[in-house]
Amino acid sequence: MRIKKLIFRLACTGAYGLLFTMPAKAQATLDNYIEYGLKSNQSIQQQKFILEKNLYALQEAKSMFLPDVSFGGSYTKTHGGRTIDLPLGDLLNNAYSSLNKLTGSGAFPQVQNQHILINPDNFYDTRFRITYPILNAELIYNKKIKGQQVGLQKEEVSLYKRELVKNIKAAYYQYLKAVYASDIYISSLTLVKEELRVNASLLKNDKVNRTVVLRSENEVSRISASLTTSQKARDSARDYFNFLLNRPLTDSIMVDSSFSKPPVDSFSDQGVNQREELSKLSIVSDINQNLTGLAKSYIIPKIGTSLNLGSQAFDWKFNGSSRYYLFGVNLEWNLFAFGKNTHRINQTIADQQSIGAQSEYVRLQLETELDVRKNSLISSIAQYAAAVTQVKTAQTYYDDELKLYKEGLAIYIELLDAQNQLIDSRLRMNISLYDTWIAHAEIERATAGFPIK
């Protein structure tokens, strides 16, 4: 009996001693896992690629305010088609003949009627074209919208990171819960095996009946089955945790035994103003305002300039006569579009009103979630405190029953009841401890309390 009592006390103190003596601040192991997960998670990487795409779109919008230079050319070879008839001979030859007679010379030769082909033949035209927008409200609003979309995607990345942090913490706590549950069952299995050995010895000496040994054997089988179940739950928790970190599922996980009760008032004064969901809605509202401005920009004329520098001539000639420049100022002003612009403006205004109503609803929803999370944390801490007390009570109850059983003043079923109460209370204490930390992670998520870089 002394050996059995010693084994049980060692199991009680060995499995849980660190849980209640170490401060809650030492969470370096979990912090390192979170840092690793934020760098390696595939969902975060996908969101970063989208952010990179939006940054390039912003650079594209900025480049539209710069001059645009293009090169173009054409060559035309033709035969046949329409012509312009010029009766130069009919108009001039009689006059030239009279002038030759009067002057007694041949200074005025006869000319032929001309048939000029309209399509140019063996003609080239090459040019550099430079365009520059002087005034274009659409480009201005487009640049603003692209910049706001970059900010929107940054908030989306932060949102994914914050959700991942919560999931990593919860998965780690679930893993620790399963690890320590397995330890409890291992220590309990050692205990019931020792009880079986002792009861078998008592049976040989006719101190107990056969039923006591059979019940001891059943306890060994029951605890063994529970141990197997808890080990499988531990493996499943390990696989999910490694999945979040984008690691091989069977990689080992370092166990941080520094978790005690979390502070109940750590988030008491924090609200939901830091939530990315509200920031996103604010940015969407700003984008919609610029979309309204974009729809109204039709009232502002578009002014731009263009300059062509090129050469054009027949038979590939290139000289001072073939080179040319062409400069122009362009004006475009949409004066009337049968109400299309007005309808477009009304759509953006309706969207703005919808976003405003959605923002109020989301804020109320987030505040409600925060209140629920706070209540859940307080409840979890209360349950944990009660579980600690129950372990102490169950330990005292077991010690008393063990003493009575040793003296022959209690039957085995009473000792077994005390033993099961102690095992169950230890399991509940283990569960409630990490449930408090899961609730802590939930409220940290609800307040956006974790610092995201």
Describe this structure in words.
The chain is α+β, with helices and mostly antiparallel strands and 453 residues long. It folds into two domains: 2-72 and 136-300 and 336-446, Outer membrane efflux proteins (OEP), CATH 1.20.1600; 79-119, no CATH class. Helices cover 66% and strands 12% of the residues. It contains nine helices and six strands, in the order αααββαββαααββαα. The strands form two sheets. It has a four-stranded antiparallel β-sheet, with no helix packed on it. Helix 2 (28-40) packs across helix 5, helix 7 runs antiparallel to helix 8 and helix 8 (340-406) packs antiparallel against helix 9. It starts with a helix and ends in a 7-residue tail after the last helix. Residues 1-26 have low confidence and may be disordered.
Secondary-structure map:
Blueprint: H1 2-21, H2 28-40, H3 42-63, E1 68-76, E2 83-86, H4 88-103, E3 114-117, E4 123-135, H5 137-204, H6 210-244, H7 276-296, E5 302-314, E6 323-332, H8 340-406, H9 412-446
Antiparallel strand pairs: 1-4, 2-3, 4-5, 5-6
Helix pairs in contact: 1-5, 2-5, 3-5, 5-6, 5-7, 5-9, 7-8, 8-9
